[in-house]
Amino acid sequence: MSNKKKIVLAEDNSTLSLLLKFRLQKEGYDLFIAANGKEAIELIEEHQPELILSDIMMPYISGLEVISHVRNKLEMKVPIIVFSAAGQEEMVLKAFSLGANDFMGKPFSPNELVIRVKRLLS
Amino acid sequence: MNNSQSVLEYFMQLPTLVKAVWLISIVLFILILGLILYLKILRIYLRKNEKEQIKYQKIYEENLINYLYAGDDVNEISEEQQLFINKTKIEILNTFNRKVLISVMSKLVNDISGEIAVSIHKFYYETGLINYSLKKIKARKWEIIASGIDELTQFEVKQAHNKIEKLIKHPHKEVRNQAQLYLVNLFQFQGLNFLNNLEYQLSEWNQIQLLEILQKFDNQEITNISNWLKSNNISVVMFALKLAKVYNQFESKDALLDLLKHPNEEIRVQTIDVLSYFFDTECKEYLKSNFNNSSKSEQIAFLKLLENTGDASDENFILENINHPNFKIKLASLKILKEINPTKFNNLEISESDTASKRIVEFINNN
């Protein structure tokens, strides 16, 4: 049984997902990648992660719906960081009201993300 | 053999019109069959192409990320990175590979900042991909030029400024649009200098795109917009009015007041709207004296301005308009009257038959 902390990353940009996976694995985390909200919910239910990273705009199920599912249906208190693009300020506010813990506006620095992940998991 | 001979004999005996119909049917049948076959082959080709693209995209994604994490210092290229650069230089001689690699890099460069973004830009220069983008802007086809400018924008190639500035006058709209986005993305407010001599019209969508780009910069010090407010190009004036409002350009007030006499109605209305946003009172007397010669839109825009700036000195003007036949003007006038003189508003004498005015007064009282 691995002692690594599990993170589910929901992001439809496959290149960005791979880059963050590589970076966070290097920091000692166990990464599970979802390309959309639907996959993210399946991975969260299956692996019960210690942290969720989610983009807001994703196909099938949005990041907001993922947060709502985690907080209301699964009743999990796991920290959630959302990624948002410029002009999605209202979405970020909605994400916070649904229970997100932090947000990062794109473009963001992977190093800064690592710092925030460490802070939330410490 | 006999059968086909008899079919032929039967065909020859048919009337000419029926023969022609048969011939046309056969030709059409062959054409449709050919078209179906062509579409089938095209679909197979496109699917194969798509599969290849996905395959190479995955390869390049992995390779690029390995490259990005292979160096310790963002300012130096490690041995491992140099090997990958050399390999890539050969691979990108192939247009398909080059396209896939650029799309992978674009996906990342838009979402990432910091050291990784710097490394991607460096990779773009070191592999010589920049030369392909610069070559694209000299192409004959507009779509290739636009794509070249887009790449130079994404990878922040500032040295292409002079070449791209010339493309602001390109006959194709998409090229012009990309060139504008390049200038503003890379040179911020200074990039807007292309407005000084712009001959083509800036579409509403262009204007929104430019405003959105400008708002993402930390430096919000705008250059003087007065010259653009005086431009002969109507779309430039409209854009400058938007800039005046977004960036609170109250110092351009004189140029704004001049625009109240502009021959274009849309500009006059927009100007009143901006002055209303600034709570300007200097324009009131001119607009009052010119009220009856103004268009309905200007009159309504002016009354909206008075909703912000109206005072006792406007009472007589307002009273002249509380029975205006236009509903919006009448409603706005009554609203303003209530604000500047509530007693007079409450004591208004409305005849029994004037149900419209009664309902408006009731509405204002309840809201």
Question: Can you give keywords for this protein?
Answer:
A: 122 residues; alpha/beta; Rossmann fold; five-stranded parallel β-sheet; 5 strands; B: 367 residues; mainly alpha; flat
Structure, explained:
- The complex is a heterodimer of chains A (122) and B (367).
- By secondary structure, chain A is of the alpha/beta class.
- Chain A has one domain (6-121): 3-Layer(aba) Sandwich (Rossmann fold), CATH 3.40.50.2300.
- In chain A, 47% of the residues lie in helices and 20% in strands.
- Chain A is built from 5 helices and 5 strands.
- Chain A has helices at residues 14-26, 37-47, 63-73, 89-98, 110-121; strands at residues 6-10, 30-34, 51-55, 80-84, 102-105.
- A 5-stranded parallel beta sheet of chain A has the order 2-1-3-4-5, with helices on both faces.
- In chain A, helix 2 (37-47) runs parallel beside helix 3 (63-73).
- Chain A is globular and about 35 Å long.
- In chain A, 38% of the residues are buried.
- The mean pLDDT of chain A is 93.
- With 367 residues, chain B is an all-alpha fold.
- The mean pLDDT of chain B is 91.
- Chains A and B meet through helix 1 and helix 5 of A and helix 2, helix 4 and helix 5 of B.
Summarize the SSE layout with pairings.
The complex is a heterodimer of chains A (122) and B (367).
Chain A: E1 6-10, H1 14-26, E2 30-34, H2 37-47, E3 51-55, H3 63-73, E4 80-84, H4 89-98, E5 102-105, H5 110-121
Parallel strand pairs in A: 1-2, 1-3, 3-4, 4-5
Chain B: H1 2-13, H2 16-68, H3 79-91, H4 95-109, H5 115-126, H6 129-136, H7 142-154, H8 161-166, H9 173-187, H10 204-215, H11 226-229, H12 234-246, H13 253-258, H14 265-277, H15 284-289, H16 296-309, H17 315-321, H18 327-340, H19 342-346, H20 355-366
Helix pairs in contact in B: 2-4, 6-7, 7-9, 9-10, 12-14, 14-16, 16-18, 17-18, 18-20
